[in-house]
Predict the 3D structure of the following.
Amino acid sequence: MKTDIDLLWKQVMVSVEERLNDARAYEIWIKPVKIKEIDGKTVHLEIPGMTFEKGFMPYIDIIKQEFYRITGWIPEIKIYYTETNKDKTPHSPIEYELPLNPDYTFDNFVVGPKNQLAHAAAQAVAQSPGIAYNPLFLYGGFGLGKTHLMQAIVHFVKERDEQKILYLPADVYLNEFIQSIKNKTTHLFRQRFRKLDFLLIDDIHFIAGKEGTQEEFFHTFNFLYDQRKQIILSSDRPPKEISFLEKRLVSRFEWGLIVEILPPDFETRVAILKKKCEMKKFSLSDDIIYYIADNVKDNVRILEGVLNRIFALSTLLNKDIDQKVVDEIIDGEYYKKRTIITLDNIMSAVCEYFKIKEDDIIKETRIKSILIPRQIAMFLGRELTGNSLHSIAIKFGGKDHTTVLYAYKKIKDLYQKDQYIKGIIDEIKNKLER
C-alpha cells in the first residue's frame, strides 16, 4: 500500500538525516526527493530535474545502505524527473536552481525579539523590492533562520507577482560560473542573472577568495542595483568580517541594510516547537516542550531535528514520549554528534591546557606565555563558533575585530608550519568536540 511505502520512506529519511549529520545538505539534496513506488526490490524515486541529479547522486549509496539496515534488502534505485508544467506563461517566474522547502514561508516563521528586525526587513523587500533595503544582508550562525527568510521571500513573490526571481546557494552560483567558463557560455550565464527582478544568494561568503567569481558577481550586482532590482544576501558573518572578500564588494554589501539574526530565547524556542507540532498535527505535552526548549539552545535546526526524531519514534514505532526518551535523543543523538562549542568552552579548554587563569587571558599583556594562548583562543573562536570577530575580541580581551583577524592569521600560519602548535590546537579541539 502507498501508505506503508510512505511510512517506510519517512523512516529511511530519518535515518539518512541522522547519518549525514549535515542539515544543510539534507535540506538541499535529500528532502526534495519523493518516492513513487516500490516494485519488488526496485525503488522508484522522483527528483526535481537534471541539475538537481548531479548534487543528489553522491547520496544514493547512503540511501541504499539505510534501506538495507531497515528492510534487510538492498534496493535498485531508479530515478525519474518531476514533470514540468508546459503551460507556463511568458511572464511567469523562471525555474529555481534548487527546489524550495514548502514550509519556509512567512506564516511558518516564528518571530521573537532576536529575529524580529530580520523578519520585518524580509517582508519589506518582498513587498517593495528595490526601494528601501537594497541589498538586504542577513547574517548569523548556522540554523537560525536565514535560509527560511530567504525562501519565504521567494514564496511570497512567486504567489503574488509575475517577476523573475532566483534563489540559490553561493556554491551553486560558483559551480555554474565555472561550468560556463568551461563550456564557453559565460555570456548566457551573465544574461541569465542580469534579467532578474530578484536575486537571492545564500552563504555569499563562499565566493570569498574566488577572484573570477567575485569579479563576475561585482558586475552583476552593479547592473541589478542600477536597475533597482532587489538583491538579498546571507552569510554567517557581516561583510567586513568575511576574509578575502574584495573591498569593493564589502562596500556594496553595506549599501543597504545589514541585519544580524541571533539565537532564539527560551520563549521563542517554545513557540517554534509548538508551531512545528501544529504543522505536523502532532501533540506533545507542555512539560516535554519546555524541557526540549530548555536543553536545546542556539540552533533552530537542531531543535527541529530533536522534534523530528520524537515524531518518528511516536508515529513509526508507537513509542510513548517521556522525559527519558527525550534525554536519549538530546544526549545520544544530537549533542554527542553535533557538539555546540561556545566561547566559554574555548576559554575554559585553553586555560586548562596552559594552566593559566581566565583573567590572565583577558588582561592586556604582551607576555608570550599569555599572548600565544590568547591568540589560540581567538583562532578557535573564529574556527569553531559562529560568533562575530567583535564578540570574540570582547571575550578574549582584544581591542577590536582587527586583533582577532591578526591572531587568526598568525595562528593559522603557525598551525601549518609548526608541528608543536598544531599538536596543541588539535588536542584542544579534540577535547572541545568530545
User: Anything to note?
Assistant: The radius of gyration is 23 Å. The chain has 20 helices and eight strands.
